[in-house]
Design brief:
- It is built from three helices and six strands, in the order H-H-H-E-E-E-E-E-E.
- The strands form three sheets. It has a two-stranded antiparallel sheet with strand order 1-2. A two-stranded antiparallel ribbon has the order 3-4.
- The termini are far apart.
Length: 155
Amino acid sequence: MNSTRITGDDTSRVSLCVGCSVAALLIGVALYFALAAHALTKEPTGFDPNRPVPSDATLRSRLKPDQYRVTRQNGTETAFQNEYWNNVRPGIYVDVITGEPLFCSLDKFDGGTGRPTFTKPISKDSIAEKDDNSYDMHRPFGRRLNIVHRTALRS
């Protein structure tokens, strides 16, 4: 019988090949999970600024009548009888049409108007200010602003 013995050089070569194979496998797994995590973060969740505004028919079916009147017909919420004027829960106020964050509850205060009042928006880019001189009311000690979502200007 002719047998071959494994020498020290052969052992180190086998160990090197096994080590390199395991290292390559671990690097491949790490790259896979890194790319998978990156792909998950790219999926739009919540607000998408490029999403088109739904049609009026869709909005009429999705929104409450008062919400539709305020957001699409330039209406005004009924003072002291609307959903959020006395809401004290912490959270983020979002646009009812797009879901974009507009105001934080930390910036809300009681303005005495019976409507939600905030000191500042989350981002000035998400709103537009329009002077409100409705009902021929001219306000000498300050102006009243209607805050509208910027998509309201696209309608």
